[in-house]
Amino acid sequence: MALSTAACWSIDVTEATPVDVTEVDAAYAYCERLTHHRAGNFRYGIRLLPRPDRRALCAVYAYAREIDDLADGGLDTDAKHRELSRMRQQLTNLGAHPDPVCVALGDATRRCPIPLEAFGELIDGVEMDVDGTTYSTFDDLYLYCDRVAGSVGRLCVGVFPPSSNPDAARLASTLWIGMQLTNILRDIAEDAEAGRVYLPREDLRTFVPDMSSPPISFRSGPGFDALVRFEAERALRFYTEGLRLLPYLCRRSAACLGTMAGVYLRMLIRIADEPSQLLDHRITVPAWEKLEIAVRTMAGLPRAVVRCFTVSDPPSIAAARREGASAVSDDVMLSSTAFNVGIALCGVFWTVAYVLIIRRASADGTYGMPVVALCANLSWEAISSFTQPPPGFLGPVPFVWLFIDLVIAWQALRYGPGQFPRTSARIFYGMFGLTLVMALTMTFQLNRAFMAYYNDHWGLYAGFAAALMMATLFLFMLYNRASTAGQSVPIAVCMLLGNFCAGAAWLAYPPPGIVASTFQESLVAGTLGLNALYATVLWRHGRPDGHAHAATSAPEMSHAKDEL
């Protein structure tokens, strides 16, 4: 029962390509077709790799597939052992065999440091299946899982570009063992009917003593549910440890591995949600969900696959996730002094910016923050103050900003109708209220999503998403007003410096547990770029204190519009 087992067993890809193919490209094409038809849970991740790595991993999968098929084929035990010995010997000279899988694998091993000895370990594990080995303790089962699944992880590390983590092979093995344990749970009823039981006997005696003697037939009940959830929690710890490898891989390799693990992890969560369903039908992940997981990981969420994919986990699996998934409780203090300093400076600069906005707007008889940005700001600060406060010393910061923003909101309500002469005050107030309600709803959902996907209990992702939107809207406000009223270079510089301090602290000294991603880098870079552009335009078209030059009128700012 090697990990490569898939649901699509009826497709005979050998009919599509002759077995004597020797041309390398055709051999790779054969392996890719086999992977597409047989690797129901893996192909979505494999497709995220660059073409050379994808072809190499398909060759690895195809050979592992052939080894696994022998264990489940119709040959007698002696014949299976002879075939496995033949495949073991075949690995010593792949170039001597015209089989397309051997041709492709031989070429892949010349291009990548694939540890062929791991195939020997896979064969050792499959021989345990052929012999009908049973497992008294988890240590016994671990050996089997390491051979049939951990070996596949080590093979994958050989395909991926070199990792800077010296424990890469061990972490990959650990992750694959977690997926193999998921496989064992998924097929528990089917394997029992075939006379195969992989779960340790010691666990059976503990949870289902009446079902621990051969022939074993599992029945629904509290004991069975407890057994499955116990094994699911154990599997989850392997995922958590193994997923530590992802940050050390290149982006596409991490996306590939994250997608594979994400599919199996989602399956594991469903198994733990309702163990009794294992006795009724085979649990699968629909194709559209596999695609969703692939999109998430490719977008920069690979490490987040260990986070919550459902919100209704049973207490046992939720407890295991809290223990193993690096979830950070609200009372955990930030450990990095540099991060603390960066965030503190951000708070100082943004507080100064808010005060300057209030002063400038009051002097010019207008409001100094775009209405949509103001509503988003109020929403983030309200949520961060009352429902999802950040941990440690950051807790009071959103509350202080919320109080200041309420003053800015009062200015918007006082001066706003005058900025829109074609709109009545009643309509303006109604639109302001509607915008605030929509912003509250969207910000709350985004904050929850960032907490789940990125383990962001500090509001950094949500805060920078709001900062990016604000930076864009400040530019639009300058453009639409055709003047610098309510705005000034000091305000723009304080916003830029505040975001720079927070962004630098986040990128260089991230708080414990938060997930890094390319999305994070894009948020920071985009925000700082737009902040710098806004400050530059203000400097060119207005005095540093925010007053327009005497000659700066609509025609001159019209020229500014063209430049923006």
Task: Describe what this molecule looks like in 3D.
The model is unreliable at 4-21, 301-335 and 543-564 (pLDDT under 50). The protein has helices spanning 24-38, 43-46, 51-72, 77-90, 100-111, 117-130, 138-159, 168-186, 188-193, 201-207, 222-242, 251-273, 287-298, 315-324, 337-364, 371-386, 397-419, 425-454, 460-481, 489-508, 518-541, 554-563. Helix 10 packs across helix 11, helix 16 packs across helix 18 (425-454) and helix 19 packs parallel to helix 21. The chain is 66% helix and 0% strand. It has 22 helices and no strands. With 564 residues, the chain is an all-alpha fold.
Helix fraction?
Answer: 55-70%
- Total number of strands: 0
pLDDT averaged residue by residue: 80
Low-confidence stretches: 4-21, 301-335, 543-564
Alpha-carbon distance between the two ends: 62 Å
Rg over CA atoms: 30 Å
Protein name: Squalene/phytoene synthase family protein
Organism: Streptomyces formicae
Transmembrane segments: 338-357, 369-387, 393-413, 425-446, 458-479, 491-509, 521-539
Subcellular location: Membrane
Summarize the entry for a quick read.
This is Squalene/phytoene synthase family protein. InterPro entries: Isoprenoid_synthase_dom_sf (IPR008949), PaxB-like (IPR039020), Squ/phyt_synthse (IPR002060), Trans_IPPS_bact-type (IPR044843), Trans_IPPS_HH (IPR033904). With 564 residues, the protein is mainly α.
